[in-house]
Amino acid sequence: MRARLSSAILGAVGALLLLVFWLSTGWPKQADALLRPYGLFVWFGVLGAAIVLPTIAALRDSKWWFLLTAASSLTAMRFFLGVMS
């Protein structure tokens, strides 16, 4: 039971991080003003954690967390391609 709860918490934190990223794309001026001192490293960390945490949750307990991992990976790919171009 304890492992299941910790997996759910890891997956939920990953989902929240992905949600924060998508909300920031809706309001880029506010997000840019808030995170300007930190640069892109914050977004790389957010997306990295949004990929890793649900993956850990999926490996431990429910395979449904792989859907969130896939969504996070596609978002990261979109972000990286946007940054590189």
Structure notes:
With 85 residues, the chain is mainly α. The chain has one domain. It contains four helices and no strands. The chain has helices at 2-26, 28-35, 40-60, 65-84. Helix 1 runs antiparallel to helix 3 and helix 1 runs parallel beside helix 4 (65-84). The N and C termini lie far apart (46 Å). The mean pLDDT is 84.
Please specify the SSE layout and strand pairing.
Blueprint: H1 2-26, H2 28-35, H3 40-60, H4 65-84
Shape: elongated
Number of strands: 0
Task: State the end-to-end CA separation.
Answer: 46 Å
Q: What is the number of independent domains? A: 1
* Category from helices, strands and their pairing: mainly alpha
The H-and-E topology, N to C, reads as: HHHH
Number of helices: 4
Query: Beta-strand percentage?
Result: under 5%
Radius of gyration: 14 Å
Helix content: over 70%
Q: What's the rounded overall pLDDT mean?
A: 84
Largest sheet: none
The unreliable regions are none
Brief digest:
This protein is an all-alpha fold and 85 residues long. The protein has four helices and no strands.
Sum up the structure in keywords:
85 residues
